[in-house]
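Tutorial, part two.
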Amino acid sequence: MSVALLASACASSGQTLDEYADALTTETDAYVVESQNLSYDYQSGVEDGARELLATDVDDPETAVATLFRQGTVEYLALLTDAMLRYLTALEAMEPPSDVAEAHDAFVSAVTAVGDAIPDAKAAVEEASDLDGIQRGLTASGFADGQFRWTATCQSLEAAIVDAGRAMDLRCVRPPETGGTQ
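Running the prediction step on this input gives:
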């Protein structure tokens, strides 16, 4: 009997489903709020700055706006990297129950991949000379594709938690007006 209890205790190492889901919800909510705020600040900062530039007598408005957009994007990516690193650290510290561990690991891998793509995106944006180049740099970096993987693995993790018996909404897909992406 004691051997069976010991085997059972070893098999259920980690957090309970409720503990894990609560921790995941707390960390995800914090990251979503922070990333949405960063996105909003970035978008409004670039839009306001562009309006101000275009209201003045600028010799080359397209270049001035591209410079503003490039600087804003580089700053945004740096801040997003910091937020994502904190989120990833929290995710890696979690000990999911065995019935959701595989989905958790896939999600952590996707978050890591997005974070790993940011330096290339940032470098491509820094090297771009115009708005089209900035857009090409962002899409070619793997950052955009990584966000799709992030969403898919987030949805899979959410489904695994629901299948294990706990209601869950990780806000894997967000409407565009709230920042749109992770």
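The helical segments are 2-11, 17-55, 61-93, 98-127, 131-140, 143-163. In part three we will examine how such features are distributed along the chain.
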